Amino acid sequence: MEQIHKTLRDAKGMRWLVLILVSFTMLCAYYLTDAMAPLQERCQTSLSWSATDYGFFTSGYGWFNVFLLMLVFSGMILDKLGVRFTGVLSIIIMIAGAFVKYWAISGHVDGTFEMHLGSYQLLAPTAKSAVVAGLGFAIFGVGCEMFGITANKAVVRWFRGKEMALAIGLNTSTGRIGTALAMFTPVPLVNMTGHLSAPVILSLLLLCIGFLIFLLFGVLDKKLDKEEAAAGISSDDEFKFRDIIDIAKNKAFWYITALCVLFYSAVFPFIKFATNLIVQKFGISDTFAGYIPALLPFSALLLTPLFGSMYDRRGRGASIMVLGSLLLVFVHLLFSIPSLNNLYIAVGLVMVLGVAFSMVPSAMWPSVAKIIPENKLGTAYAMVFWVQNWGIMGVPLLIGNVLDKYCISGHVQKMVDGKMIEVTQYNYTIPMLIFACFGGVAILFAFLLKHEDAKKGYGLERPNINK
Ligand SMILES: N[C@@H](Cc1c[nH]cn1)C(=O)NCC(=O)O
User: Fold this and answer.
1) Ligand 1 in reach of 30 Cβ (< 6 A)
2) 33 Cβ below 6 A of ligand 1
3) Which residues cross the membrane (predicted)?
4) Are strands 120-127 and 408-416 parallel, antiparallel or unpaired?
5) Which ligand 1 atom sits closest to the C-alpha of 176?
6) ipTM associated with this complex
């Protein structure tokens, strides 16, 4: 019988199985990334965290990635040692980070912490539990970002020339299921168990399952290696320092990176504060308030593959990014208007934000693969993520500080565990305007990217599927 499939990746079922295996761990990783977001007020009442403490802890995700250049090293490890090794390493790091985070928020750490350099105060008094939880989140962030670039590279390897954008979109979408679950399960879990750390324990369990599932992917990927070697297909994966210079010389790469950091700075940190925004602005209890931001990843998880598939078949990647950035600004500006405090408006705006949050990622990540050759892709994704992590780290810090300095609108007494506790109220107008500004500059870079593509012919406006 004539041989139909040259390698495993030519077998459709195998490609999609690989996607499922890689994506499950993505779901677990994204769950823990946002699992504390609906618990901002609970952290205030149970651990005495201010908005600044919460912002400080949230910024932890990027500390090691940014300052220790862990993301850049992750890219090098990925391009040098491959997706299987890097994937396993990243999951182990995530588990270690999750454990530290669990330790910090489960009542083992008390008191406050401050840091001085001579007479200069580096860190104002901050809840020690927020500092240790931030350290755990920083370790987890290294693993999570390492896994993100590994998953992207694995998917590109298995899907290039096929349904690449759809596959990347579906992989991201599975991550969004994790984010959606993180929006509405933590509060019920804490209520049920009486422990603030319950969602983190669930994440630890999920990550261990993700580890086992990723090992299965490793078996298939190794088989593909062998088949490609036998067929004389070489994967020129070796990392060279020159790669960083080559990538850095590419103007389109910097436009897409700038768009990435600005766009995501207006989305991921927004998610971290969104539950509290809904509580404060729309007067809903935090048990239900998390359901509204959950609509954001929900709509994104349905629409990201749709836009990915559109991009595969029809092209228009750069235009999709422009439109997505415009929608982002529209939503944040409307959120900033104090009189627009009707719950239906909140639901509508979050859903439109979900559309923007589908459009930009579904076009952005496959576009990187069109601008940068595959053998440098691990390093390229790592460099984009590294810049993006400045935003993921810096913006929550900024918003937390702005809230405590300029946005306190009052205090209310709430009954928590049988005790009356004073809870601070915030007005979110200034934070929403800050998010809108990031979106405004993102639009500019989306246009610059479109223009550069028209000049250099990267094919961002062309379909991905080879006919
Ligand atoms: N670098 C990641 C950041 C992230 C957020 N949640 C988990 N990881 C990223 O940008 N991933 C791509 C995406 O669109 O989620």
Assistant:
1) yes
2) yes
3) 16-32, 60-78, 85-105, 130-152, 164-184, 196-220, 252-271, 291-311, 318-337, 343-365, 377-399, 428-449
4) unpaired
5) 15
6) 0.95
Distance of CA 195 to the CA centre of its chain: 26
Output the pTM of the full model: 0.88
What's the rounded Cα separation, in Å, for the pair 45 and 408?
17
The finding on whether 144 has its CB within 6 A of some atom of ligand 1 is yes
Chain position carrying tokens 């489960």: 106
Contacts of 54 (CB under 8 A, 6+ apart): 40, 43, 44, 130, 396, 400
**Test site for ligand 1: of 27, 144, 381, most ligand atoms within 8 A of the Cβ:** 144
Q: Please name the residue that has the structure tokens 């994104």.
A: 300
Residue 159 Cβ < 6 Å to ligand 1:
no
173 C-alpha to ligand 1 centroid (Å): 11
The contacts of residue 66 (CB under 8 Å, 6+ apart) are 386, 389, 390, 393
DSSP H or E run through 130: helix 128-159
Out of 264, 320, 353, mutate this one to test ligand 1's pocket (max ligand atoms within 8 Å of CB): namely 264
Bridge-based pairing state of the strands 419-426 and 408-416: antiparallel
Q: 254 near 372, Cβ under 8 Å? A: no
Nearest to 179 by CA among 262, 53, 298: 298
Buried b (16+ CB within 10 A) or exposed e, 224-244: bbebbeeeeeeeebebeeebb
Ligand 1 contact, 169 CB (< 6 A): no
pLDDT at residue 68 tops 90:
yes
Residue 418 neighbours by CB distance under 10 Å: 5
Segment 425-464, tens digit of pLDDT: 999 999 999 999 999 999 999 999 999 999 999 999 999 8
Question: How much is the pLDDT for 285?
Answer: 82
Does residue 388 have its Cβ closer than 6 Å to ligand 1? yes
Whether residue 35 contacts residue 178, with contact meaning beta carbons closer than 8 Å, is answered with no
Q: For residue 456, what are the contacts with CB-CB under 8 A and spacing of at least 6?
A: 252
Number of residues that make up the chain? 467
Q: What fold does the segment set 8-456 form as a domain?
A: Growth Hormone; Chain: A; (1.20.1250)
Q: Is 362 exposed, middle or buried (0-12, 13-18, 19+ CB in 10 A)?
A: buried
SS3 240: coil
Q: Where are the domains of the chain?
A: 8-456
Q: How many CA atoms lie within 13 A of 342 on its CB side?
A: 4
> Which amino acid is present at 179?
T
Taking the centre of ligand 1 as the mean of its atom positions, its distance from the CA of residue 33, in whole angstroms, is 9
